[in-house]
């Protein structure tokens, strides 16, 4: 598999490029609007054809480039039926997405948002904002639910093999990856913590809402193509 | 091999952790002072013993944590004889550094600075600031030399197999990695460019000196342990 992790420094968002080196078909997970030219150029340079864009959820902290990528490449956009209505294919638990010879398995991991998905491909797990390196997504907006997030992590993600490589949707401390076993042992919100502990911790956090919440959520429900958020003043 | 890429957002510096999963011995390449607690904690959590710290060169844009790491872990600090005099072992072209069962091969790749080294380990190439993703290090201070940098890249790095994974010392555009073949084909300063083209391009650039040049270079020549740069006001 051709694999590349990409970063948007402004929103600390990771985008992932996976491709089949034989067929040259590629998928982008969680691409960022401001990086669309970088990402299209990289696809061209690597001789790849973007066929699929997958969203882990409707993001509140950045705007997706999914709609623009679809317009420029013909790629199919995929996300949860609880997420953006603009997609070409709705993904539910257990679905398989084929990209050339690659198979991405869909795991529903709600709790950060009600539409949160994780994707598993060849020993690599893409967790969006459900599980971060030594952290988790927040649960205080977009139908977030701390108990549900705890269940998603402990009953879905933590039942995967310990060696599964974990690639988060964001990082703010300079980590690029982890593993399932590592987070089971060392994630301070989860290691040795009960469901109740987790809910209490999450509910007691007092953090300001994401700066882009009001702009990003409606824009992302339109796959980033809402004309308003695309203007320089609001993007 | 256990491998982890780490990022310091303030200086856009990548630090690399490589370890032998059998013996648990580990090496850090280009660790950053401000991240020393993160890195020590990660080593502890992963059950690793830091035995070696390698510097690609005397950095001008951040201060190394090599000296602190040596004091805290007993690790040996290694760099070029043209670099910091505080090291435990001086590395020259062709040297092999053993870390458990891992072997890191030393390549002298001067030009960004006169002490610049690259390290090769199991198909992964760590280039420091010699070769960056779609860029190169600058050559306008610390005995930098554009012609020498062109030679280092084209005669040393570009003679490695195309599939060699390339891990840079910095990135400012959200790239985490590339490959030798990719940079040969798509690095705008090098692909299809002569030595003369490269020298002309580098000499015509007008960019301000690194913000930390005056502080970082003397501090790094003392492995980051100079008391002055360690004070909060100047670090």
Automatic annotation (TrEMBL), chains A, B:
Q: Which InterPro entries match?
A: Metallo-B-lactamas, Mito_Persulfide_Diox, POD-like_MBL-fold, RibonucZ/Hydroxyglut_hydro
List the CDD domains.
POD-like_MBL-fold (cd07724)
Names of the cofactor(s):
Fe(2+)
Looking at the record's lineage, which domain of life comes first?
Bacteria
Pfam families, A to Z: Lactamase_B
Keyword presence, Cell cycle? no
Per the database record, which ranges form the Metallo-beta-lactamase domain? 12-170
Q: Which UniProt keywords apply?
A: Acetylation, Dioxygenase, Hydrolase, Iron, Metal-binding, Oxidoreductase, Transit peptide
**Molecular function per GO:** hydrolase activity; metal ion binding; sulfur dioxygenase activity
Q: Which GO terms describe its biological process?
A: glutathione metabolic process; hydrogen sulfide metabolic process
So what family is this one in?
Answer: Belongs to the metallo-beta-lactamase superfamily. Glyoxalase II family.
By what name is this protein known? MBL fold metallo-hydrolase
Origin organism of this chain?
Myxococcus llanfairpwllgwyngyllgogerychwyrndrobwllllantysiliogogogochensis
């Amino acid at each position: 598999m051709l694999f590349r992790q990409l970063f948007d420094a402004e929103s600390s968002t990771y985008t992932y490029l996976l491709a089949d080196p034989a067929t040259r078909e590629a998928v982008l997970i969680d691409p960022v609007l401001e990086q669309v030219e970088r990402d299209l150029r990289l696809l061209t340079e690597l001789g790849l054809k973007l066929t699929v864009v997958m969203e882990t959820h409707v993001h509140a902290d950045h705007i997706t480039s999914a709609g623009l990528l679809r317009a420029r490449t013909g790629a199919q956009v995929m996300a949860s039926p609880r997420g953006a209505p603009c997609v070409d294919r709705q993904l539910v638990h257990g679905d398989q997405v084929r990209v050339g010879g690659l198979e991405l398995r869909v795991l529903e991991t709600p709790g950060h948002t009600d539409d949160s998905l994780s994707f598993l491909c060849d020993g690599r797990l893409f967790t969006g904002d459900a599980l971060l390196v030594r952290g988790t997504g927040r649960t205080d907006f977009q139908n977030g639910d701390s108990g549900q997030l705890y269940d998603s992590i402990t009953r879905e993600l933590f039942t995967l093999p310990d060696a599964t490589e974990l690639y988060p949707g964001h990082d703010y401390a300079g980590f690029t990856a982890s593993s399932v076993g590592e987070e089971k042992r060392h994630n301070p919100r989860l290691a040795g913590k009960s469901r109740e502990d987790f809910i209490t911790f999450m509910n007691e956090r007092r953090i300001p809402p994401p700066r882009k919440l009001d702009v990003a959520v409606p824009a992302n429900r339109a796959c980033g193509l809402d004309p308003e958020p695309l203007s320089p003043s609001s993007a």
